[in-house]
Amino acid sequence: MMTISKKAELFDKAIVDLWQAEQAANFRADATIYNCSQCVEKMVKGVLRCYDIDYEYDHDLDKAYSKIIESKEIITLKDLSKIVATVGLWGNSIRYKSMSNDPSIQDGIKVYNTTKEIVESLSSLTKAKPFYTEAFDYNRKLLKQSEELTKKNDISKIFDYKKT
After folding, report:
1. CATH number, domain at 109?
2. How far apart are the first and last CA of the chain?
3. Cα dist. 49→72, 128, 134 in Å?
4. Per-residue pLDDT tens for 77-112?
């Protein structure tokens, strides 16, 4: 069984959230935006974990991101704060149904692209990069295992039956 380090765990979950957002991007803006907000939250908290900064186990993305901004050790793009806040607001609007109307596919794609930028910026931070890479490699291995299992089981044979 494959394992992953404690500091890579949240990045692992963020990668899966981003993948789920990508899968839904062309047909479910609400699912895309929700998974993007989850991804950003886990990326921010993953960075805090890598830098040994305590954080609350809640969904207050602004509060968590402000710990990155306040940190003397973490040097990051300060202008990400507005972007992170925007993704967080969209996510909360979806989660708590406070939007006046449903988001469009274009809204979902815009939030997805913004989330990718956030992931790229945060995953490149000095202490986060090795753990993000570990999580990324872990997911790549899991995907490869899944593909191999699918080939071995040959799912197409499930539908191969003889007419009687």
Report:
1. 1.20.120.330
2. 43
3. 15, 9, 15
4. 555 666 666 666 666 566 656 555 678 888 889 889
